[in-house]
Amino acid sequence: MLLYGTTPPRAGTASGPVEAAADKLASRLAPLPLDGVVVYDIQDETGRTAVPRPFAFTGTVDPRRYASLLAARTGKPIIAYKCVGNLDETAWQAWLAETASAYGVGFLSIVGRPTSGVRYPLSLSKAIRLAAAHPAGFTVGGVAIAERHTAERSESARLLAKGIEGCGYFISQTVYHADASVRLLADYLRDCRGAGVQPRRIVFTFSPVGREKTMAFLNWLGVRIPPETSRAILGAANPLAKSIDICRDNLRRILEQPYARDIPLGVNVESVSINKDEIDASVDLFHALHEVIAPRS
């Protein structure tokens, strides 16, 4: 499965420019062998860490609205992210009904809140169960974060539980450290076999990076970029080309493992940058990763 991830235009953008942005993205994606497009629900996340945010937070137009525009222009399935936020069960049910009836979105990737240790009116687990059981027939997904799979906290057990609750797939955060993903997948397959359930699809996200500030933003988001990887990219004559090479190698390492025969996998390419060269590089990265996957499909 090959996906491309994007962020909606900034909040307050007039309808004309929003539609123009959708047109431009659809044209950019038209030549790609895409299976679908991911539209993110961007949150502030300043409560997650004491480290200052490298870029000022700016809200976006409703991801469902942008998803609907892209669906019409690309003809591809669109996965809309949704942060449960402070919604209670009643508000969540209303949001789900509106998502199906007003926007025609059928694929949801439901994420929790960026600030932990706070009690919210609706748990992520219940939000997933309600969405999976909704009459609209949503295909529900979640998030996989390989870096939090440790001896103290099992991400593989979390994925197993979320799959049982109703998640049919998981999309990872950006990968720049293949070892963590390899360990997670191996343990996830083991846990699924132990529980007698089929593994859900795991889609790994990759993003090009060509600037120190873009790399700082990825680090701030929680992406683990080993120091030697950072130095190799930023010290290269062409940092973006180097980052694409590293992403290609990381995907190969993830795929060249025994679990790849038993776990449905996928790739999602995104750009976290507003710089044209890094956005263009995301298309180059897509082609590079497709070349890795094509002989295996």
Description:
With 297 residues, the chain is an alpha/beta fold. The chain is built from 10 helices and 8 strands. An 8-stranded parallel β-barrel has the order 1-2-3-4-5-6-7-8, surrounded by 4 helices. Helix 5 packs across helix 6 and helix 6 packs parallel to helix 9. The protein starts with a strand and ends with a helix. The model has no long low-confidence stretch (mean pLDDT 91).
Strand residue percentage = 5-15%
- Please give the radius of gyration in angstroms: 18 Å
N- to C-terminal separation?
A: 9 Å
Q: Biggest sheet, open or closed, and with what strands and sense?
A: 8 strands, parallel, barrel
Oligomer: single chain
Order of helices and strands: EHEHEHEHEHEHEHHHEH
The global form is: globular
Portion of residues within helices: 40-55%
Mean pLDDT, nearest integer? Answer: 91
Low-confidence sequence ranges: none
Question: Order of strands across the biggest sheet?
Answer: 1-2-3-4-5-6-7-8
**Helix tally?**
10
Total E-strand runs: 8
Q: What structural class should be given to the helix and strand makeup?
A: alpha/beta
Features:
globular; 10 helices; 8 strands; eight-stranded parallel barrel; 44% helix; single chain; alpha/beta; 297 residues
